[in-house]
Design goal:
The protein is an alpha+beta fold. It has 3 helices and 7 strands; from the N terminus they run E-E-H-E-E-E-E-E-H-H. The protein has helices at about 30-45, 135-145, 160-165; strands spanning about 1-10, 15-25, 50-55, 70-80, 85-90, 95-100, 105-120.
């Protein structure tokens, strides 16, 4: 399974995170409802719960109190990660994106795009959009979010465990 990582620094309005975004490419071949059900089951098996199905908002937003996983079960999208100064990435059905707390994400355009989202230990998420008044509370929240015990796809042996726990 191919993995990619992307680091994003605080840009003044979006805090981002010292932990990188991890993208698994082509994790599964199913599409539509079958794929969504597979993702929900796989995420839950690895203690990523409180799942939902939808898309990604068309404005920069981030969660300061939890990490998030997005499994693309239909279509494709151009996402911008890391805020206005971040990176634009195409994602496709079969891809899984692990987004650390504080990293902004935005849908710049999509075709038939749908994801299953979930959070480690079934956490609830807050919603931040990069307003100055969100800081420093958002920074404090991000610093307190623990590294999950399980990668949402590969459990204890996954890229998240290896990469996010690697010595800095």
């Amino acid at each position: 399974m191919k993995t990619e990582t992307y680091h994003f620094k605080d840009d003044g309005s979006i805090p981002n995170n010292k932990l990188p975004v991890i993208i698994y490419r082509g994790v599964f071949s199913a599409r539509g409802d079958e794929a969504a059900q597979w993702l929900e089951k796989k995420f839950a098996e690895n203690d990523w719960e409180n799942s939902w199905r939808n898309g990604v908002f068309d404005y920069h937003h981030y969660h300061s109190n939890t990490h998030e996983v997005l499994g693309v079960y239909s279509g494709e999208a151009l996402l911008q990660l890391g805020g206005e100064k971040g990176q634009k990435l195409k994602v496709f059905a079969g891809d899984v994106i692990i987004i650390p707390a504080g990293v902004a994400h935005k849908n710049l355009g999509s075709d038939g795009f749908a994801v299953v989202g979930a959070y480690p230990e079934g956490r609830s998420h807050d919603m931040n959009v990069g307003k100055q008044e969100e800081r420093p509370q958002a920074d404090e929240n991000i610093a307190k979010v623990p590294i999950p015990k399980f990668d949402p796809i590969e459990g204890r042996a996954g890229a998240l465990i290896k990469i996010w726990n690697a010595p800095k």
